[in-house]
From TrEMBL:
<dbReference type="InterPro" id="IPR018170">
    <property type="entry name" value="Aldo/ket_reductase_CS"/>
</dbReference>
<feature type="domain" description="NADP-dependent oxidoreductase">
    <location>
        <begin position="8"/>
        <end position="54"/>
    </location>
</feature>
<dbReference type="InterPro" id="IPR036812">
    <property type="entry name" value="NAD(P)_OxRdtase_dom_sf"/>
</dbReference>
<protein>
    <recommendedName>
        <fullName>NADP-dependent oxidoreductase domain-containing protein</fullName>
    </recommendedName>
</protein>
<dbReference type="InterPro" id="IPR023210">
    <property type="entry name" value="NADP_OxRdtase_dom"/>
</dbReference>
<dbReference type="Pfam" id="PF00248">
    <property type="entry name" value="Aldo_ket_red"/>
</dbReference>
<dbReference type="GO" id="GO:0016491">
    <property type="term" value="F:oxidoreductase activity"/>
</dbReference>
Amino acid sequence: MVSSGELQICLRWVYEQGVGLLVKTSNEERLKENLDIFNWALSDEESEKINQIAQSRGFDGDTFISANGPFKSVEEFWDGEV
């Protein structure tokens, strides 16, 4: 489970990349925490450490299928909608 502090760091990093992000919560306290990302910035060292983490920006359908999982083929996984 991710702590609220870790989540804020992730949200702040995404924001600093210039990416638009949407977060959803019905918890008022979490909403306040999410908005708090605008009151501070990551240090250069923190940003560099995060940038060194291997990233994947997309997944093909094979990532989500498994003989033991709920989706046994890409056709079962993909409903045709975007």
